C-alpha cells in the first residue's frame, strides 16, 4: 500500500526511496492512492479549526470563518495542493535529461518524487487543528525544510543521477517550488477579489 511510504519517509527514507524507484507506479495511482488522500489532511483540519474552533491574535476576541467561507477556501486549498504537486512532478521530469537522469517511458518517477517529498507538508496539516498562527507557521516551516531535504536525498536514488548533480537539480527544483508557491498566493488574491474570499464572524 502506497500510504505505508509516509511512515518510511521519517524512519528510513533511503530504503524507502529505493523501494519507490523499483515500484514504478503510474502517476494516476500515486495521485489517487497517496496524494489525493494525504492532501485532504490540511484542508479538512483547516475547515474544522477556522469554522468551529476559531483563533485569537493577542487579546483580541475569538475570530471564525463562516462555514460556507471555510468550505470554499478549504476546497480551493485542496485543489491548489493537487495542482502544485503535479506541477512540481512535471518540472522534475522536464529537467531530468538536463541533469543526466535516466529517461523513463512512464513519467512516474518525477510525480513520485514530488508526492513523497511533500509528505511532511501533508502531515503538517494536523497542526491546523490548533489554530495559533505562530505555531502553524513554525510547524510548516520545519515540514518544508524536511521536505526539501527528502527531495535532495531522493533525487540521486529515484532519478538515477550522481549526488553532485543532485545539488544543482535540487536547487532548480526548489526555485520551481517557490514559483509555484508565489503563483498560488497570487491566484488566491485574484480569487478573493472575485468574491470567494474569507468571511469572518465573531466567536
Question: Any overview of this molecule?
Answer:
The chain has 203 residues and is mainly α. It has one domain (25-202). 74% of the residues lie in helices and 3% in strands. It has 9 helices and 2 strands. It has helices spanning 4-11, 13-23, 27-38, 41-53, 67-96, 108-117, 119-123, 133-159, 163-196; strands spanning 63-65, 200-202. The chain has a two-stranded antiparallel ribbon with strand order 1-2. Helix 4 (41-53) packs antiparallel against helix 5. The relative contact order is 0.16. The mean pLDDT is 88. Its main location: membrane. It comes from Marinobacter santoriniensis NKSG1. Keywords: Membrane, Transmembrane, Transmembrane helix.
Q: What is the overall shape?
A: elongated
The pLDDT mean sits at 88
* Whole-number tally of structural domains: 1
**Low-pLDDT stretches:** none
Residues in helices, as a percent range: over 70%
Q: Give the topology string: H per helix, E per strand.
A: HHHHEHHHHHE
- Biggest sheet details: 2 strands, antiparallel
Number of strands: 2
Trace the largest sheet across and list its strands. Answer: 1-2
Class from secondary-structure proportions: mainly alpha
Please indicate the percent range of residues in DSSP E strands (runs of 2 or more): under 5%
Helical stretch tally: 9
What is the gyration radius calculated from CA atoms?
Answer: 18 Å
Distance between the termini: 42 Å
